[in-house]
Amino acid sequence: MRNLIAFLLRYQGVMLFVLLEVVSLFLFVTNSTYQRAAFFNSSNAYLGVVLARRKEISDYFRLTDLNKQLLTENARLRQQLFPPDFAHREADSLPVGRDTLGHVIYRHLRPLGAVPGVGLLAQNAKPKPAAPRPDTLLLGGARLAAQDVAYPLVPARVINNSLRSVDNYLTLNVGAADGIEPGLGVLSAAGIVGRVKAVSAHYATVTSVLHSKSAVAAKIKRDGTFGSVKWPGDDFSHMLLDYIPRQNRLVRGDTVVTSGYNAVFPEGVFIGTVESFVKEPDKNFWTVTLRLGTDFSRLTYVYVVHNRPRAERDSLEASVVAPEPPTPKLVVPKHPPR
Amino acid sequence: MSVVGMLVRQLLRYGLYAGAYILLISQLSLFDRGWCFFYLGFLLFLPLGTPVAVQLLLGFAMGLTMDITYDTGGLHAAAAVLLAYLRPWVLRLLTPRDGYDAQDSVNVHQMGWQWFMVYLLLLVGLHHLAYFLLELGSFRHFGLTLTRILASIAFTSVAMLIVQLLFFPVRRGRG
Question: Which chain A residues contact residue B82 at CB under 8 A?
Answer without folding.
Answer: 21
